[in-house]
Every structure is written in C-alpha cells, then in structure tokens.
Inverse folding.
C-alpha cells in the first residue's frame, strides 16, 4: 500500500542555515530514500543517493539545535518506526531501530530549543491515533506517550515562538479538521484548540522569521495552495490566498536561519517544484524543480 502523507519542520530556536528533503514515492521507482539538500540561499540540490529503508508517509523534525531526524512511514511492505538522523553537516545515518507504534501520515515539530516530537498518524490497523514520541537532544526517541486531542492523520506541524510547536489540521474520523494542538517548551501537548481556516489534510508546514510558522497547501475535495501563518504566540491566521501550484502531499523545511521552503508534492502528477517563504512570510511563485518528482516525503533543517 502506498502511504499517504509527508511533513516537515524547522529548528526549534530558528537559525539552522540548511535544509533537507528526503524519502517519498514516485510512480516509476516506488518508495525512495533519496535526499535533496537546501542551501542557505534556498537552492535545492540534485538527488543524493539514499540511505536507509525506502519509505514514504514519514515525518521529520530537528533536535540538538543543529541536527534532524526522519522517522516512521510506510516501506511498501508495512508501516515502520525506524529513524534516520541527519548530522549537522547533512549526512543521513543508516536505520536506527524504531521505538513506538509503527505508523504513517504523522507529523513532527521541534520544541524546547533542542528537542523534537512526533505525533498522531495512522497505525497498522488503519486507525487514527494521537500518541506522541519525543526526541531528546541526543536524538533518542521515547516510547509511546498517551495522546492528547482528536485522533487524526494527514496533519502537519511546525515550531513557533523559538521553543514551542504546533500540530494542525488533518483528517479525523469525522472528516477533515482545522483544529490545532500546541506543544509547550517542555513537550506538553495541549487539548484541541478551535481551528481557523480551511479544514484540510495532506498539507505541509515549516517555520520562518526565527519565531513564526506557516501551514500551506493541502487537499479537501480539490488541491489547494492557500496558507495560514502562525504568530510567535501560536495564533493561526485565517486563510491567505495561495501562490503557486495547488497540490497536496508535499514537504517543507526551513533554511537560511529565517526562511522556509515548500517542495515537491502531487496534483494528480508528481512534482518537484518549490516555493520559498521569505522572513516576512511571503510565499514565492513556482520555482523550477530539481531532483526526482515525488510526494509523501519529509523535510527538516540542520547545521
């Protein structure tokens, strides 16, 4: 079964100069482990030979102030909980034995300036969950922590306020939602917060301007290109008219210490185009893509 989601986030404290997109699925080659790095000016590299189990529907976040971690997803032969760390020079590790419930279409964010958290998703029984797994500042993933908030999958997450995180949107048992759940600087997830903006799933999110975030794109019964910004106090804006190709199942990451980038995705066909986010939250028009067209990938920052 092909997995259904991707997500990405940025360094908790805002300030990592580089980003990385990784993994995903393509019609021709199936699940991949290839990566594409993002320079401090937003230039995406050509494909880098993948490391670790090929998979899609995974998530990624930062930890340790300058490192990243890819985790969970669908290998094509089942859901996994394995992780692959990203060093501060962008080197992806081989597989690390997974901890916690195997699942896909989850989301993740940094928090506390040097830690991360994976949350929610769809498990092997095709059941939405709300459990979380924290990532220490040395990259150790915790066992399952009892979930808080509405169970759902196909959501996304990013950091805000330099040391907090926010999960938002997704597909719940009752349908698409726009609710959010914040993550404190100690990793505590809040109960549901009334959603703002279009209820949707298969979107992506990243941080920008060192202390703000942005949710973008996604899917309802149609492909979307709208965005919703997150203030440095965690307030989500109403819908902002989208720029660039409407799509779902894309990834996002931060770069350049205060900027972000949305990349890849699917609008009925796999894409490799990107859209940058300025340090004031302005999304650029489409930039010609580099690397293998794919979707269900993830992204994070490092350096």
């Amino acid at each position: 079964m092909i997995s259904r989601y991707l997500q990405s986030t940025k360094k908790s404290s805002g300030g990592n100069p580089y980003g990385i997109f990784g993994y995903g699925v393509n019609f021709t080659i199936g699940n991949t482990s290839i990566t594409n790095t993002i320079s401090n000016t937003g230039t995406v590299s050509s494909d880098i030979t993948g490391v670790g189990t090929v998979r899609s529907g995974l998530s990624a976040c930062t930890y340790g102030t300058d490192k990243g971690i890819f985790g969970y997803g669908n290998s094509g032969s089942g859901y996994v909980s394995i992780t692959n760390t990203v060093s501060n020079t962008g080197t992806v590790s081989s597989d690390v034995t997974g901890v916690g419930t195997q699942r896909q279409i989850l989301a993740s964010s940094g928090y506390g300036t040097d830690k991360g958290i994976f949350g929610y998703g769809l498990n092997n029984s095709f059941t939405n969950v709300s459990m979380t797994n924290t990532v220490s500042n040395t990259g150790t993933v915790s066992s399952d922590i009892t979930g808080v908030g509405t169970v759902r999958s196909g959501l996304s997450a990013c950091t805000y306020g330099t040391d907090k995180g926010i999960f938002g949107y997704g597909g719940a048992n009752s349908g698409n939602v726009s609710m959010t759940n914040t993550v404190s600087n100690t990793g505590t997830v809040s109960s549901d917060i009334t959603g703002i903006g279009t209820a949707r799933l298969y979107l992506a999110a990243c941080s920008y301007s060192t202390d703000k975030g942005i949710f973008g794109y996604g899917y309802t019964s149609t492909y979307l290109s709208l965005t919703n910004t997150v203030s440095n106090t965690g307030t989500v804006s109403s819908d902002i008219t989208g720029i660039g190709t409407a799509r779902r199942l894309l990834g996002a990451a931060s770069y350049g210490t205060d900027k972000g980038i949305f990349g890849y995705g699917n609008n009925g066909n796999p894409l490799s185009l990107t859209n940058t986010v300025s340090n004031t939250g302005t999304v650029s028009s489409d930039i010609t893509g580099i690397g293998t067209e794919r979707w269900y990938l993830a992204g994070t920052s490092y350096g």
User: Anything to note?
Assistant: Residues 7-302 form a domain with the Neuraminidase fold (CATH 2.120.10.80).
